[in-house]
Amino acid sequence: MSSGPAGAVPPDLTASTLARLRAGDSRAGRALERLYRRPLIRYCRRFLGNVTEAEDAAADVFLKAIAARGAPGSFRAWLYRIARNHCLNLLRAARRRPRPLPPASSLAPPADAPGPSTRLARAEERSRAARLLEGLPAPFREALQLRYGDGLSRADIASRLGISQDLVRYRLYQGVKLLKNAAGSTRRNGHRQ
User: Fold this and answer.
1) What does the pLDDT average to over 81-90?
2) Domain span at residue 163?
């Protein structure tokens, strides 16, 4: 099955693929896995903080999607809503808080990266930004990660979280405002020491 650009799957194609999978077509299952497995694991990892737990959660999410009676027109958003709810349930059951992803500074730089001092400065800035983001309340942090980390539109975020676009807009605006305030505060405190 040709999927075109990454993540650009017509809803009717996904729905028909899901129907084929429910009817026992293993090729349809492999097609859905190719399209959604890796992004779904990354998404679950944001909540659970562990790749193994995220892989297990993604598998559970696929099973829930297959067991569901139907699929809405926006299959991807629906699947991610199932994933979000499943991960939140896992966290509640374990009585633990979501763990953030490792700071971006732990990622290896690309081969064509600038010199060591420039890479170090950028890594420190990314690490600082990740720490500031971790300090935000969960609704604002989640909206910012989906918008700027995953590149989703406000409509996709609203669909994924099951909230209105106005609420998404508010969370993004307030999240950026909180980040700016936190960044300004740490800069002022850093210069005083």
Assistant:
1) 89
2) 114-192
